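Hey, resending since the last one bounced:
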Amino acid sequence: MRAHLFVLPLLLATTLPAAAATPAPGTPEFARAVLEKVDDLYRGAQSHGVMEMEVKTRHWTRSMSLESWSKGKDYSLVRILEPKKDRGTATLKDRHDLFTYLNNTGRTVKIAGAMMGGSWMGSHFTNDDLVRETRLSDDYDVTQLPDDKLDGVPVYRFQLIPRPGKPIVWGKVEALVRISDQAPLQQTFFDEDKKPVRQLTMSDFKSIGGRNLPTTMLMKPLDGSGEYTRVTWKELSFDLKLEPGFFSVRNLTSR
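The structure tokens again:
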């Protein structure tokens, strides 16, 4: 499973769903409605942006500047701008396929099979995170837990258990959603033994194109290593039109 929709602010634009009456908190319908809103936050529309990604491991720290384009949930292109030695290296998502162009060798590689579990651009996101299309509201049985606070902010808590037969590697997921506006703040992923494995946190909400979006995403393993990957949007716009043909292997290698 991908780290779900929160990972793909890297790659996906946003269209907020039309306002609708929300069921009463505490009901099964409420939990489902909130997660549908969360699911749809990063779907649809088109986007272009520039972001910075910082990756910290036990042995090194790396910073990159990236440019991205997206069209809905099916198409995306992310290209490294800096550091200079990696400039031009890029990742393309074309529907269900994922390709990487390695600028230093001039090779284009289709990512498949065992490679899907590998790190995306050296970060704590995997290649698999980029292509899965799991929906929280469709593929999990959801339970609303007692309300809580995250850094002093009141939040709804939801426990998600994968439905039988779904291709999901997690034993469960816990999601925190801000009560005031139902904005997603955090997801914690547990393995099959219900041990927490990694956590994704969203912060620095800003109004962009009429949308209230988190501009910082922090992914960290929960193994006590202190490692993390932080993505921060520096530029983001939605007022452009991109054709599916833009997201081609040929364009993947363009500089």
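The chain is about 10% helix and 45% strand.

Sorry for the duplicate.
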